[in-house]
Write a structure and sequence with these properties.
By secondary structure, the chain is mainly α. The chain folds into 2 domains: 120 residues, no CATH class; 139 residues, no CATH class. 81% of the residues lie in helices and 3% in strands. The protein has a two-stranded parallel ribbon. Helix 10 runs antiparallel to helix 11. It is flat.
């Protein structure tokens, strides 16, 4: 008796617009699974021969604070780090294609088109604006990576090293932890610097109004600090330096949008 309501609920959800979209996306992903695996392997094989040079460049003495030594505590740690970096490259290629395919399946679905008409939301069409948006996204990603590499990372490394050395501790960092520290901060900054572009696109498309953004300001700020907590070391300075650019860029986008509308 208890199974009938559950089955009925599942059938109703599968027949809804959201269920139909998920089914369409699932079928498309299954058909493309071999292509995803091939794309991952291509990215992995292209990146793996370059990982040793990248790691050597990363641990160069000029990029480390004074008195810091990078150590390897297991025979296979260096190899595992190479595999991780090459795997990240392959996953990045797969993720970009996956996001594109999921968005394409969703936008083209009939129920989504009808809902967008009801909400009077206008999606960007292929043309100069879409190209500018893509170029803007790439530029913001590069700016975020530069902010992390030239500003955030040296400051945090110097701060954390000085703090440990003043306590009389020897500063020897594990290779995998040091590389993960760098990658996490660069990734967080590259993602966080997309805030003004995402805000502007949502406002211009009509999907979210200024009033809705203003009402959700506390949640957006909280989300920025959550991202900083996940992607930065567990200290207040790192959390602040990762979260604050996201909040500032979001507020700048809101101000610019207000003046452009006037």
């Amino acid at each position: 008796m208890a199974q009938e309501p559950i089955q009925t609920t599942i059938e109703r959800l599968s027949q809804s617009s959201g269920g139909q979209i998920l089914t369409s996306v699932n079928e498309g992903l299954r058909r493309s699974m071999k292509f995803y695996i091939g794309l991952f392997l291509i990215g992995f094989m292209l990146a793996f021969p370059l990982t040793s040079e990248f790691i050597a460049w990363l641990v160069d003495d000029h990029r480390l604070p004074d008195g810091v030594d990078i150590i390897v505590i297991s025979p296979v740690e260096f190899l595992f780090l190479q595999l991780r970096i090459a795997g990240y490259v392959g996953l990045m290629l797969v993720s970009l294609l996956l996001v594109y395919q999921v968005a394409l399946h969703g936008v083209r679905h009939q129920s989504v088109q009808e809902r967008l008409k009801e909400l009077e939301v206008t999606l960007p069409k292929p043309g100069p604006r879409l190209i500018l948006a893509m170029l803007g996204s790439a530029m913001l990603m590069v700016v975020g990576a530069f902010y992390a590499w030239y500003g955030l990372i040296p400051l945090l490394l110097e701060y954390l090293t000085t703090d440990a050395q003043q306590a009389g501790l020897s500063t020897e960092w594990r290779l995998s932890n040091y590389a993960g520290f760098i990658v996490n901060l660069i990734s967080a900054s590259a993602i966080g610097f997309q805030a003004p572009l995402i805000t502007t696109l949502l406002l211009r498309s009509g999907a979210v109004s200024r009033e809705q953004f203003a009402a959700s300001r506390r949640m957006i700020w909280f989300g920025a600090f959550v991202l900083g907590a996940f992607m930065s070391p567990p200290d207040p300075l790192s959390l602040f330096l990762v979260a604050m650019p996201i909040i500032v860029l979001f507020e700048v986008a809101m101000v610019v949008d207000r003046f452009m509308r006037r």
